[in-house]
Write a structure and sequence with these properties.
Length: 176
């Protein structure tokens, strides 16, 4: 009778070890699958959009859009930046119908009326970033709507016909 009970205990221990092994193996497989899925998603996102540079997305904090904020992802050793990118470029006027009730005050807080060197840019670019479009330098002092993530909008101030004549164009833009 003793020999039978002793074998039974070994068998229970062996089953427990097998179950622990299977649990460990299952956890390892799940971790591997999550890592592969994460890698696949990142590569798919990189392929989905043609990027001229890696963009570091930061949380929306008012400090980031202040002129004192000097973070430049291109300064990081791990980031390679090219200064040219293709944008859809359009035009807008500083009038309430195209902006808001205070059209002269841009999203950066600057007075942009009377200026011909202002561009609205996507949120991934900090305020005061400079863009060269057709040889002319523009300063990002305003924001495009969130739905236009790859668009620059040149301010034509009150020149409605100039904005209409400019239209919407795809252009190679240099980012400074």
């Amino acid at each position: 009778m003793k020999k039978y009970q002793n074998k039974s205990r070994q068998s229970d221990y062996s089953r427990k070890t097998d179950i622990d092994f299977l649990i460990g193996l299952g956890v390892s497989v799940v971790i591997l699958l999550v890592a592969l899925l994460f890698t696949f998603v990142l590569s798919a996102q990189a392929d989905a959009k043609e990027r001229s540079s890696w963009v570091v997305y930061l949380p929306s904090i008012s400090k980031i859009d202040s002129p004192d904020y000097a973070f430049n992802p291109c300064d990081l050793r791990s980031v390679t930046c090219r200064n040219e990118k293709t944008f859809t470029v359009s035009a807008y006027n500083t009038v309430p119908a195209q902006t808001d009730s205070s059209p002269c005050i841009s999203a950066s807080g600057d007075d942009i009326c009377g200026r011909s060197d202002v561009v609205a840019c996507p949120r991934m670019y900090p305020f005061y970033t400079r863009f060269i479009i057709d040889g002319k330098e523009y300063e990002c002092l305003d924001r495009t709507a969130r739905k236009y993530g790859d668009r620059l909008d040149i301010s034509f101030d009150k020149d409605m016909q100039g904005a209409v004549n400019f239209g919407i164009k795809v252009k190679e833009v240099t980012i400074k």
